[in-house]
Each structure stands twice: as C-alpha cells, then as structure tokens.
Amino acid sequence: MDLKTLDEFGLNSTGLKALAEELEQNGSEKFRKTYNCAFLILQHSPPQKDEWMDLETSESSLPKLSELKNATNHIRVIPLKKSNRNAYASKITVGRARNNDVIIRSPKISKLHASFLPDSKLNYKIQDMASLNGSVLNGQRIKAKKRIALTSGDIISFWRYVFEFVSLDDFISRLEIR
C-alpha cells in the first residue's frame, strides 16, 4: 500500500467493500495469490479529537471486548504484508513511523510499536517491541519482546486502536458470505 493512502484514521488500510469487490471480480484463487497473508480488521479507533490530548493509556482505557460488536466505525482492513519500507526481512512492523509495514499515525503509538512474525504456513506470532503504551492481546497486555502465537479471531489493541486478527481462509469466507 502506498503511503499516500493513509485513511481518516491515520492507517494505511483499505475498505472491506473494496476487498469484497476484488474477490468477487477475480475469484478466490487469484485473491489468495495477490494477498497470501492474514488481515487486521479495525474494530475500534479513538475519536480524532482525542488524538493529541494527554489521555489515560492504560489497559483500562481500552473498550471492553463485549462492546466491540456494537462499534459503529467504518470497516477498515489492513493486509499483514511486507512493504518495501521495513528493513526487517522476517517481521511485519507496526508503528507510527513511515518505515513500518502497518502505519498508525498517532502520537500514542510508538515509532516501532509491535511486529508480526509470519512463517511459511501463514501462522503468525505477535511481539510488542517495548512500546510505551503496550500491546494487548485478548484483554491481556503482552510482555515486551515476548512472541505469542495468534489465532484467527484474536483481538489485538495498540493503544486505543483495536483490531481483529483474521486468517486468509477466514477472511475469504467472510467476504464470500457478504
């Protein structure tokens, strides 16, 4: 994805509708070859007016997992793919700096906040890179530098940005149901 495509949430994401249309037009085989990765689906983001305020950033300020189903934000999706911006060969990096694969332009997100570590079978692990405000997996803060295996449907939070981690197969299944 091009850096010029940061959306209204400060993310380098695309709309779910666009991906559904791409799948419908090209078929699942071509879609798999094009993406060949898992996805992050934005579930919750902080209001833009709160972005530069000094807010409480502890885990307690995150929305409860049960409240996510009622979120009314636009459905934004980030493919977990390597870009040509990141120097780490084996990591998909997340942070506010422009050299990350997943960019979240917020002052509460560290320049290098976290990373995803995929293997050849598209199994992913997540690692917090000792970020200031931490990363949370399914309501539990991730210890810095600890690698934790992910399962499709896991909820990941970077500050007040909350995402659902979805495997390629599950993502295609969801799009085909639409």
Layout: helices, strands, pairs:
Elements: E1 14-15, H1 16-35, E2 39-44, E3 76-79, E4 92-95, E5 102-103, E6 114-118, E7 124-128, E8 135-137, E9 140-141, E10 147-149, E11 155-158, E12 161-166, H2 168-177
Parallel strand pairs: 4-5
Antiparallel strand pairs: 1-3, 2-3, 2-12, 4-6, 6-7, 7-10, 8-9, 8-11, 11-12
Helix pairs in contact: 1-2
What brief labels describe this structure?
alpha+beta, Tumour Suppressor Smad4, 178 residues, seven-stranded antiparallel beta sheet, five-stranded mixed beta sheet, globular
Overview of the structural elements:
By secondary structure, the chain is an alpha+beta fold. It has one domain (3-177): Tumour Suppressor Smad4. It has two helices and twelve strands. It has helices at residues 16-35, 168-177, and strands at 14-15, 39-44, 76-79, 92-95, 102-103, 114-118, 124-128, 135-137, 140-141, 147-149, 155-158, 161-166. A seven-stranded antiparallel beta sheet has the order 1-3-2-12-11-8-9. Helix 1 (16-35) packs across helix 2 (168-177). The longest helix is centred in the N-terminal third of the chain and has 20 residues, at 16-35.
Name of the top-level CATH class: Mainly Beta
**Strand/helix succession:** EHEEEEEEEEEEEH
Strand percentage:
25-35%
Question: What is the total number of structural domains?
Answer: 1
Q: How many strands in all?
A: 12
Report, as a whole number of angstroms, the end-to-end distance.
24 Å
Q: Write down the Rg.
A: 15 Å
CATH topology: Tumour Suppressor Smad4
The second-level CATH architecture is Sandwich
Percent helix range: 10-25%
Q: What characterizes the major β-sheet?
A: 7 strands, antiparallel
Query: Can you list the strand order of the major beta sheet?
Result: 1-3-2-12-11-8-9
What ranges have pLDDT less than 50 throughout 5 or more consecutive residues? Answer: 50-73
Tertiary shape: globular
Structural class: alpha+beta
Please state the average pLDDT score: 85
